[in-house]
């Protein structure tokens, strides 16, 4: 059996096509021609996404004593986004095609012709556009590079005047900063402690691209970890290690993930130190996650903006101060894309090329498929249903599959990354007394089958998905 990873050039097409065909990810509003930058998760995509977010929640929130989970509203008082600096400064550098009036990211146009834009300010980008005589993708002259705010605005209530404007949150972090005081008042946590949240965020990306990599409606898994000012370096290092643990646990190849110390000019307005964790996607080495030291920028700004005292009172030292913040921020979609790319494998089995998703069983959307060898034999179906019900009561992500012949079922389950196919045959019923009450368990990666007593199945599947 020879196994090969497909070449980067056609990798994205293969993943996008498999994701659609097998119900992982569909284009948003597809029957209306789609809506750029939006994607819908199908039945298997939801399972895979939940496995990723549940893993994060158990490692970053439930598995720790110092973390508090929250789920804040997406719509917030617009004053919060003024205080956080997003109304004034959450922008991307854009340039306009002078003929069609279409807008493009100046840095993307330059990167497409091999210019490294790291550290470039607006004036530098503008100069580089002129120096390299960059034209729009339609071949037209480009205007001046300008900043463009990426927040989606909307109106609250029945009026649509300026006073009713608010924003769809551009990051989940804001919801945690405005709830910091609530959690302190309810739980009196000792520093360091953190809030964790998983939720949607919205960014009016001018050039959404690369499938679910750059979208306008995204999901983030974020922690705001509050620390004493002199403890930030230590806690930054701790979270850096935690992020590597997650990268490993979710099944990514550590050799494809690289840390990048973000230069001063490229850091977000609130950050004093940022490390980007970049992944080798087929379209280049791009940001997967970010780890930022946000100082006490946010609590200071929200304290000033809300006029509510957000100081932390340390019972032991009797000091009052605004804690500093370490923020590990992880994108769900970017994780899912990396996980899909990592898992996609082609090999030859039984003289045929087979493509399959080699997910870690912990992440696989379906843990095992249960089938009767033949679906027109009631005695096999009855026994298989019994085994299915027994497994499903303990591990919900078990699938019933009696469609087509057994070879086709195996191929279909391989393609969606199901680690085990369990088949109930005549031996199970006692045709061969030695094998009575055993089933065949086929391994996705090797294609090998072994017999296993039904009584051992639950423990076997549970230990594989740990
Ligand atoms: P980029 O430089 O790629 O635009 P960013 O630095 O703006 O990303 P952050 O503000 O640090 O991203 O957001 C934290 C995380 O949220 C990112 O590491 C990424 O995983 C995810 N993320 C951000 N923007 C998007 C997007 N448009 N689509 C999908 N995921 C995103």
Written description of the protein model:
This protein is an alpha+beta fold. The chain has three domains: 3-74 and 171-341, 2-Layer Sandwich (BirA Bifunctional Protein, domain 2), CATH 3.30.930.10; 91-149, Herpes Virus-1; 366-464, Rossmann fold (3-Layer(aba) Sandwich), CATH 3.40.50.800. It is built from 14 helices and 24 strands. Helix 2 packs across helix 11 (332-343) and helix 5 packs across helix 6. The mean pLDDT is 95. It binds adenosine-5'-triphosphate. The site of adenosine-5'-triphosphate has 16 residues, from strand 11, strand 14, strand 17 and helix 11. Adenosine-5'-triphosphate binds next to strand 11, strand 14, strand 17 and helix 11.
Strand content: 25-35%
Distance between the termini: 28 Å
Briefly note the CATH topology name of the largest domain: BirA Bifunctional Protein, domain 2
Count of the domains? 3
Largest sheet: 7 strands, mixed
